[in-house]
Amino acid sequence: MHNKVFIDTNILMEFSTEIFKQYECILISDVVLQELDKHKYSSDPNKQFQARQAHRVIKQNKDKIKYCMKNGDFKLPDSFGLDSNDNRIISIYGDLYNQDSNLICLSNDLNFQYKCECLGLPIEEFGQDEDIYLGYKKLNGDTNFINNLFNEIDKGINSYNFLNNEYLILHNNDVNETFEYRFDGNKFVDLRLPPSKVIKGRNSLQRCSLDLLNNKDIPIKIIAGGFGTGKTLESVKMGLYQTLDKNYYKTLMYIRNPIPVDDTDIGFLPGRKEEKIYDYCRPFLQYINDKNNKKDQLNLDELVKNEKIKMDAVSFLKGVSLEDSFVIMDEAEDLNLKLLKTIGSRIGSKSCIVFTGDWEQSEGKYKYDNGLLKLIQQKKGDPLMGVVVLEEVLRSPVSKLFNELK
Is 0.90 topped by the overall pTM? Predict the structure, then answer.
């Protein structure tokens, strides 16, 4: 890892927060700053947001920045005209590299990379190789392979780099059966599922997510996946089970960030706060009662009155402590890191929080500063957190068709 790096504009635009966390000294040329200013007024809202975000991060990290406010003396080929900003940045980098051969340039621009390589200047990508953590691994093999896998784990040999609370979906080819386990940091353990009358997993991943939701020792639970995969349904049913049936928690609390879809706002909603919040909590309310089981219908009004069920919006949580609660933060893809930290810091010692969401469906600015994705990537393997990213759409064949659109 290099302590000092020279960065291209695209790195500062896409990874402004991450870059300052990883490096002690960031060299920025005046050309990069000029491009950043230009992007602030771009017709592309994505570039506008990234440029403004980069300016904020620069302001917060002045002590790590060294500005390069001069033209480079590095000789470029005649075909590399200095009317190109990329070529001007490369010239500055080449000049700095001649003074300090430990310096490295970061850029994800393929053309920029190619030019540097042609000139013999070292160049690296940033943030391109890290796959999104799914919370599970799928393996298959014969009985001998499976026995060797478990024997290795028993001896402390973790060849597949399983993380704490990561799930294993294991298919035995000899018997054509699939089994699911959770890695507890030392060994694979069997799943502990709720009674089938409460909710039954319809595939391996749903069984893994139900085990996570059922585990009181893992207070941070992330159930992600596309629409129709069952993440909200599972979370609500397990919240009701652990709050009303098992009395593990005093309150089941449902939270949303009430933002319109793709800026298609319906305008001002009349009524009291509670009435407005109910409108945004329909995904939760529709799962409170099982339509097929009339005799066990819950009295929602009574549960709300007795504070067994609460519903709220993110904007009302500042300063609130969420004690003794099973908390569901639904549609968590619409949280930036600041909002996610605001919610997470409210959770008391006897509470748990379930984040459900799909970063592919995030709205507006949250597409470019996604708190849910950052939580997963930065805290994967922490014993306090578990993750399951659901795959299969179970709502209906119609829902599955739309989910497959790219």
Answer: no
